[in-house]
Fold this protein.
Amino acid sequence: GAVVSQHPSRVICKSGTSVKIECRSLDFQATTMFWYRQFPKQSLMLMATSNEGSKATYEQGVEKDKFLINHASLTLSTLTVTSAHPEDSSFYICSAAVFRGAYEQYFGPGTRLTVT
Amino acid sequence: SQQGEEDPQALSIQEGENATMNCSYKTSINNLQWYRQNSGRGLVHLILIRSNEREKHSGRLRVTLDTSKKSSSLLITASRAADTASYFCATDEGYGNKLVFGAGTILRVKS
């Protein structure tokens, strides 16, 4: 159990367009989902924490108007990169948290975004 | 922000050898977790160790935690080529469900 999917796995878009990435917990309900960004050969940087039915909490330095997060249900969160620019090209990973004595996060396979 | 510092940054060993990776952190924690990431893929949860535990085993993995030194180590015994990946530690900074990742160790196991 504890499978998280992301769609799409890869996306190429033109500068100025918007891209939506979906994150789903397939076999469990997650009270909280997280969105991370990872540049090549670097660690994961938390962008925002998403709780179902409430506004996302963004980390310092992350533009909330650029990275729109919607958490419509206990199994689905979406990240929309608006007016994408080449510097937004990155690997975006979501995770879903479940409490099993301690909070454990299960990660999606990631989405490679390339903005041309 | 990144709380953890990991060393070494990169490690190259022969198949069958043991690999040890270390992680240090700065604040109090409830637990510390280790993850593996294959190139261009998502993270796989390996093991969680609570702040009141000192050592934990899972198959070929052995994790230790020293809260007085704010450090943890991950030992992979009898390494295999398939263990080639990046390994990250992550702590909760005492907040519960929010994780802060270390910089990671890139492990290469040569066959």
